[in-house]
Amino acid sequence: MSLTGKTLTSVMYTGATKVVQRGLGMISMLILARILTPEDFGLVSICTLAVFLFHAVSDVGARQYIIRAKTIDDDLINTAWTLNILLKGFIWLAFFIFTPELAEYMGKPEVETPLRFLSIILIVSLISNPGIWLFSRELNYKPLFKIDITSKVISFVTVLIIAYFDRTYWAMLYGLVLQYLLPGILSNFVCTHKRKFRLNNIAPQVRFSKWVVANSIIGFARGEGDSLLVAKYFNLEMIGVYSIFKSLSSMPLTQLINPATDPLLATFSEAIREDDFQPYQMNTVLLLLLSLVVPITIMMAYFDQEIVLLMLGDKWVEHSYIFSILAFIMIPGVLFKVLSEYVMAEGGYRPIVFYQIFMTFITLTILFLIIGGNLKEFSQTRVFISVTNIVIFAAYFQLKYKLFKFSDVFLLSLPLIAACPAIMCIIGLDLKENYWLTRLILGCSLFSIVYSLILLLLIYLNRTRYECKLFLSYIAVVKNFVRRKGLN
Fold first, then answer.
1. Contact at 8 Å (CB) between 337 and 261?
2. What's residue 262's pLDDT?
């Protein structure tokens, strides 16, 4: 098979794996939220944060090293495997010994036993066959797809069965361990590589690994630093509330927007290489994405109680205001995703890394200084910092690349302008007297119709802009596609 064919097949398998894993993960979370309590989720959140932090510290990037190596042999693979298990084994031993001190530092002694159990995740590489890395190197993702899907399905079913009969947080812990343990076991059925302890020519791997470890730590701090602070300074109920609402509010971004924008780096890179990139391309992407994200964010914020009732059940409704606040993180997230993809396409990886390190430090410092017993204030500050961060990054982006004009600000504000009368219409109707599900369906449907009509009108009125012409052409393509499918 050609390289192009292998690449396309790999994309298909990795994409299918992500869809299944994310889908089952989301379903599992929504079902467990109705069975378990916020305190259960809080305890599991503390355990997973601690273990995944140590997992990030011990990730030497062995698979990445094997993939990028120009030539490989058994000694190279075995050295990568040896380095991997030595570091993970050392981290696991230190973690296991000092678990009581860690639990005491967190002020949650009840997490000691779950922490020690979950630490198994750190040493599952001992049973994994390193030959599995060669499948990624050779773009042969079919065996990896089978292993990942089998592991996810088994852990998914196990979690639900245990949770249904036992109704404790241990169901989630068993599921997490199985997600890491099963791929290691199954790898031995598809790989014949013979493992041996080797440390031949280890220096290049150590130099490579230190950057992988640093990047993993930065990524963890950026994504979970706020959750660590919540885990340290709030009780189990509030930890569970913040954890699950953070996941729920980010679902549209992680499940819909991010997969849709994954090709942006390749698209921008090709246009830049061909010296064919035009500012309208950036504006069009941003306009399309904001047209989706802005209404979703506003509906999530306004119908927070109804969405929480539908997705999680009545145990979580009294804290739904946290969900309405965290929903606004989506908009800065989308803007950063698009702008950073362009910066990386220009070869600017260093500015992105430095920016994220600096902003992560500033974010965690501010959150640490203001943290108290009020989760609402903490969440509001988190959103405010996210908005401030993207304003700073957008200012840097404009100063460096000068792609935007003042008129572009108005263009990109059209989704927000259209959303204002739509939400005012819902507020004016005062649907509070209706049953919650009726209120959610009727309110979201009416909001979507009013918003869509006003947005299309605004774009039509600005059709002299090339971006608006493209937007309308995309709508026409979708309309024709739906019509053809309806006729078939």
1. yes
2. 61
